[in-house]
Amino acid sequence: MQNLFINIRKAEDKDLSAIKQIEQLCFHSGIWKEENIIYEMKENPVANFWVIEISIDSEEGYRVVGFSDYWETFDSATICQIAIHPYLHHKQLGSALMDEIYNDCYAKKIRFITLEVRVSNTPAINFYKKHGFEIETVKPHYYDNGEDAYYMVLKVK
Ligand SMILES: CC(C)(COP(=O)(O)OP(=O)(O)OC[C@H]1O[C@@H](n2cnc3c(N)ncnc32)[C@H](O)[C@@H]1OP(=O)(O)O)[C@@H](O)C(=O)NCCC(=O)NCCS
C-alpha cells in the first residue's frame, strides 16, 4: 500500500501555474488575475499565501494540489481564498490547510478568523461550519453577479 505525504508551505514563483490552474478549475473563469496572485504571494505585507502539495510515495516529487491566502490585520485574520483541485475535493486536504491556518493564527494570538462565502456554495459553507465557523450576517449583493455572501466568523481559542 502506498503512503500519502502532505506538505504545506509558503507559495513560491514556481507554484504560479499550478495555482492559476486550480483557481480556474474551482472558480471557472478565475477571480484573480496573474498580477493579483503575484501581489498576494510576494508583495502584500499582510498576506499569508500557502500551497498544499502531496506525494504518493516519497521518491516521487510533490505536486501542488491546493492553496490558501489569509490576511492578518491586528488581532483578526481574513481568509481571502482557499481552494483544492476539484479531482481531490472531500479528501480532507482543505481541512489540512484550514488546520494549519488555525494553528498559525493561534500562535500569533489572533482572536478571530473571518471570511465571506457565496450563499450558494454549500460544500464550502459545510466545510467552514465543520471547522467551527458560524454565520454572523448576510452581506447583500456582495459579489459581482449580485449574489449575497455569508459573513462567517471563528473565534480562535
Ligand atoms: C471548500 C474546499 C476548500 C474544501 O476542501 P476539501 O478538501 O474538499 O474539504 P474536506 O475534505 O477537508 O472536507 C471537510 C468537510 O467539509 C465539508 N465538505 C467538503 N466537501 C463537501 C461537499 N462536496 N459537499 C458537502 N460538504 C462538503 C464536509 O463537512 C467535510 O467533512 P466530512 O469529510 O466529515 O464530510 C473545496 O471544496 C474547494 O476547493 N472548493 C472550491 C473552491 C471554494 O469554493 N473555496 C471556498 C471559497 S469561499
Bound ligand species: coenzyme A
| Percentage of residues in helical conformation | 25-40%
Shape, principal axes of CA atoms: globular
The succession of helices and strands, N to C, reads EHHEEEHEHEE
CATH topological fold name of the domain at 5-110: Aminopeptidase
- Report how far apart the termini are: 38 Å
Strand order of the largest sheet: 1-2-3-4-5-7-6
Number of helices: 4
CATH-level-2 architecture of the domain at 5-110? 3-Layer(aba) Sandwich
Average pLDDT rating:
94
| Secondary-structure-derived class | alpha+beta
Q: Which terms would index this structure?
A:
single chain, 157 residues, alpha+beta, Aminopeptidase, seven-stranded mixed β-sheet, 4 helices, 29% helix, globular, binds coenzyme A
Explain how this protein is built:
- The mean pLDDT is 94.
- The protein contains 4 helices and 7 strands; from the N terminus they run βααβββαβαββ.
- The chain is globular, with a radius of gyration of 16 Å.
- With 157 residues, it is an alpha+beta fold.
- It has helices at 16-27, 34-43, 93-107, 122-130; strands at residues 5-10, 47-55, 63-73, 76-84, 112-118, 134-139, 149-155.
- Helices cover 29% and strands 35% of the residues.
- Strands 1-2-3-4-5-7-6 form a 7-stranded mixed beta sheet, sandwiched between helices.
- It has a domain at 5-110: Gcn5-related N-acetyltransferase (GNAT) (Aminopeptidase).
- The longest helix has 15 residues, at 93-107.
- A hairpin with a 7-residue loop joins strand 2 and strand 3 (63-73).
- The structure holds coenzyme A.
- Residues 26, 82-84, 89-95, 117, 121, 123-124, 126-127, 130 line the site of coenzyme A (COA).
